[in-house]
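Deviations from the work plan: none for this task. Representative record:
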Amino acid sequence: MNILVTGGAGYIGSHTIISLIENGFSVIALDNFYSGHKEAVDAVEQLTKADIMLYNGDFSDINLLENIIKKHNISGVIHFAARSLVGESMKRPVEYYKNNISGTIIFLEFLKKNGVNNIVFSSSAAVYGIPVQIPIVETSPITPINVYGFTKTVIENMLESMRGAYGFNYISLRYFNAAGAHKSGVIGEDHNPETHLIPNVLKSIASGEKRATVFGNDYPTKDGTAIRDYIHVSDLSYAHVVAIKHLIESKRGIGNTYNLGCEKGYSVLSVLRKIEEITGRALDIKFAARREGDPAVLVASYEKIRRELGFELKYNIEDIIGSAWKWHSSRLNGYEGGV
Ligand code: UFG
């Protein structure tokens, strides 16, 4: 069965391709390489020994989509491709509205016209804004506080409307903090600029600088630093396989939304301490002001996906940091320079 993966050369996309192949699917990947890496798909091909059809272009390019759909019988779609930096979304909102919303409207309309009915959508904890309860459940209020979160909310709503009107099948997955790398060490996180905590600090250690900056130590938490729920990218990836399988096996008109986190919160300082333990390097830690738009605590309940789809986590925070360290310590410049 063929699955079309938009953003297949990205961080979560490339890890999901491995999971899809391991579970017997064939993959058609689409990426414009704005933030994805062709090298990631090459590495996945080498690792899995599978042929991955990789198309270079935008997911809203109708000519390209027509070309793909003519050549391949697509059973389902996993839609990762998006602009995905919270801070950047506030500075360049038009790009986010245009790419994430307008682009996805074109894409979804194309899927509908061509009878492609099953879609797993990459959503985010950012749809919750400042949570009113911890752990966050899927029925918690949807009050995004940044443009990125707002774009994800709009598409979630559009999918639900398409389910109601056309019997479209979808699952929206709201990710908490994706981190870690594939156990093989051949793919991992490589963003430019890198803004996320774990890769930022591990890259600094790998370069010999060993620096960490903590954004805010005046949050209402035990040690004053912000608490997040980190989920291993390989667990996250496998959840997409569970979701697309479920949609393919269901009758029409299935629509659902699930959180993907671990139900465990770690403060920034506790993550830094674990990084020190796992890498065996002491960090030079500095404190800076809070980052605009950062909630104090984000912890997911993932009870719903566990109960309804039988999804279970395999990895913990040590596995996350350990696998990310394997990747960053051997690939200081990420994919640059080839695999
Ligand atoms: N942080 C630091 N120092 C750093 C980097 C981050 O202290 O060098 C802090 C942040 O302020 C935050 C925590 O570490 O409190 C985690 O930050 P990340 O940038 O790693 O991740 P975010 O929680 O900001 O982002 C995640 C997802 C987004 C999602 C967002 C919702 O990656 O996709 O949660 O708030 F939109």
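Residues 84, 86, 124-126, 148, 177, 195-197, 200, 213-215, 226, 228, 268, 291, 294, 298 surround UFG (CB under 6 Å).
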